[in-house]
């Protein structure tokens, strides 16, 4: 009994370590966007050539390098989080970086954060909290041999095959023909490759974790397969994400990408690690509701953040006197009173 309680406490400790790393990752990544943007604004104000026009003046700016370092720390924390917590928890928490960036941009970049955007930030926190509370606890994978056995199961092989078919179809056919006119094409490419990237990331994280604990996994061929696959799929994901952001508005790309990427990561993780097998119905409903709340919040935050809207636009309604439309009976009584009153004359009404 004591042994079972010890194992349970160890598992929950890993879970909360991963949760903390994911939150730190969101904070660092969100702040890095603002710091790098601040550096680019300084360069443009100093009559330097902007990055959008092919300039590289930011490479000599210490503030830009500081922002890049913050992003590197955030990605390291995000990578480590996948080694401790389920991917279905770590991935949705990436939405919090959008909140951090939105709040800091309104303070340090003088960008607008209206009432609807603030409500979106609050809803995003609520949705992420609900998902964490109801999140599944993934099936324990202690060694790379266990992970290899799961990778060769029919369910994950079928999922991987479908993702590869989609990737090759977009790369050779749909991307060149429809990528520049339909945002879904590039975003699907990012999401499919990104969902597999997370799986390879979890495998490499497990190898590093086992190596730190004393059992070197860098003599295992599977570790190097994970490294090659991780680099390959990260390059594909980043390439098509940059294409999407360069072609379409950020307010469109961000919510669509978040929905597709998070959905596919949760699906892949559920197939590979069987995270949803022992979930109760209330937890499943809670995860779905939390996900929908977060998606709605991301949509509101990105779509309405530039709309000129604040509490002052609604305050006038509370200060205006209440006017009531007169009924037909009241209109008839008023007409009769005017007709019978001599000071209004003897005109017919």
From TrEMBL:
SUPFAM superfamilies: Multidrug resistance efflux transporter EmrE. It is found in: Membrane. GO terms for cellular component: membrane. One of its GO terms (molecular function) is magnesium ion transmembrane transporter activity. Keywords: Membrane, Transmembrane, Transmembrane helix. Pfam families: Mg_trans_NIPA (PF05653). The keyword Transmembrane helix applies. The chain crosses the membrane at residues 15-35, 56-73, 79-103, 115-136, 156-176, 183-201, 221-240, 252-272, 284-304. The keyword Glycoprotein does not apply. It is a multi-pass membrane protein. Belongs to the NIPA family. This is Magnesium transporter NIPA2-like. It comes from Aphis craccivora (Cowpea aphid).
């Amino acid at each position: 009994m004591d042994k079972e309680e010890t194992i349970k406490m160890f598992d929950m400790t890993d879970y909360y370590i991963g949760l903390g790393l994911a939150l730190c990752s969101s904070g660092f990544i969100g702040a890095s966007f603002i710091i790098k943007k601040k550096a680019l604004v300084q360069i443009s104000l100093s009559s330097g050539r902007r990055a959008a026009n092919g300039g590289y003046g930011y490479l000599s700016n210490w503030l830009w390098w500081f922002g890049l370092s913050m992003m590197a720390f955030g990605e390291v924390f995000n990578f480590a989080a996948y080694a401790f917590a389920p991917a279905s928890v770590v991935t949705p928490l990436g939405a919090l970086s959008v909140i951090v960036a939105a709040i800091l941009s309104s303070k340090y970049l003088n960008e607008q954060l209206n009432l609807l955007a603030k409500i979106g930030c609050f809803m995003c926190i609520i949705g992420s909290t609900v998902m964490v509370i109801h999140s599944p606890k993934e099936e324990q994978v202690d060694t790379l041999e266990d992970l290899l056995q799961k990778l060769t199961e029919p369910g994950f092989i079928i999922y991987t095959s479908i993702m590869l078919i989609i990737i090759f179809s977009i790369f050779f056919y749909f991307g060149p023909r429809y990528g520049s006119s339909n945002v879904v094409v590039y975003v699907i490419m990012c999401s499919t490759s990104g969902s597999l990237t997370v799986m390879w990331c979890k495998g490499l994280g497990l190898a590093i974790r086992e190596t730190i604990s004393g059992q070197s996994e860098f003599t295992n061929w599977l570790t190097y397969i994970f490294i090659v696959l991780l680099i390959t799929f990260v390059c594909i994901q980043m390439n098509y994400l940059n294409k999407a952001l360069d072609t379409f508005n950020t307010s469109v790309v961000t919510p669509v990408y978040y929905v597709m990427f998070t959905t596919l990561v949760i699906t892949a993780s559920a197939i590979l690690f069987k995270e949803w097998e022992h979930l109760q119905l209330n937890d499943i409903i809670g995860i779905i509701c939390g996900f929908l709340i977060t998606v709605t919040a991301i949509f509101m935050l990105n779509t309405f953040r530039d709309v000129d809207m604040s509490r002052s636009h609604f305050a006038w309604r509370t200060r205006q006197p209440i006017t009531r439309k007169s009924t037909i009976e009241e209109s008839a009584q008023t007409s009769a009173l005017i007709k019978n009153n001599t000071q209004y004359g003897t005109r017919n009404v």
